[in-house]
Fold this sequence. Notes:
mainly alpha
Amino acid sequence: MHSTRDLLIALARRYAFADLGALAPTPEIADVCEFGQRLMSLDAEDFAVEARSVPAELRRRARACHMPQTPREQPRGALESLRPGYGLLLEVIAARWNRRELSPMIAAVHIASEYLPLLAFEPQLGHAGDPALWPDGLSAPGSRFGVIGDRDCDHTKSEQSATNRTLRVAGEPAEGWRAYFDRQHSQVAGALAVCVATCRNPCTAMHWIEPEQRADLGVRARTALAFADTPLVRLRHAAPVGHGFGVPSPEEVLDAWERSRSALDKNEVGGAALKDDGFPLPGLPALFSAVAAAPIAPATLLSGVSDHVVALLEAAPSA
């Protein structure tokens, strides 16, 4: 017969941090579970919230995925590099798949699609799209980047508004900074990809990148834009987190991913999605790595929290 402790350990192993936190036998375990649930929910605003019961190494790695809440907050977390954040996204996607929580899994895939162009730009920018560090070249003479109402620019009106805002938001109060990230930063990501990959009337906005590097970035950014339009990402609109009420089945998710892989296989970068790397959506880590031009593997943050909770439960008095 299973003991209460056995059941709690089983919850920890399943990353059921919310349920376990409600049943936690000690405040310390409840604190760690709250931290784990923030990670599982991709609550990037609160990754830096102090959780003293969590080992320092896990807190440090979570802060690397944190989105700064003020223009001058240090360290810069996800604005310094998106690679740790994409590792966490992959770990969450796999965890949600294993738990058959497919709506939140598709929501995580959608988040990944929105910011994927910034992952592509990171090698050239030297950061992950930090509005406080945009290169002067974006506003060079002849650039249409951030110019509202320019009809020769391929950006939509909302993208023009977002790019205009991103060039000055680092000087705004914290409230304006947070509002920008809530509503416009993902549009800037897409706009940058348009500039380097699909613009029909190129201006000087991307001339700060050497032509050879620009060509390579163009392929990676084009693949990022293509990923956002794949059948897998479009599943979000058939899930409760989108505009409908249906929840995709595992078979529908895998079918959508297979069709997505075929659609992405237009160049060497998109072709990375065909790799069978053992991930629940085979090739997704390889695709993110190819777009990033850097290795990106699923993180071990959730598993680290789970292991720590299990250790605390085993050390607690018998339930």
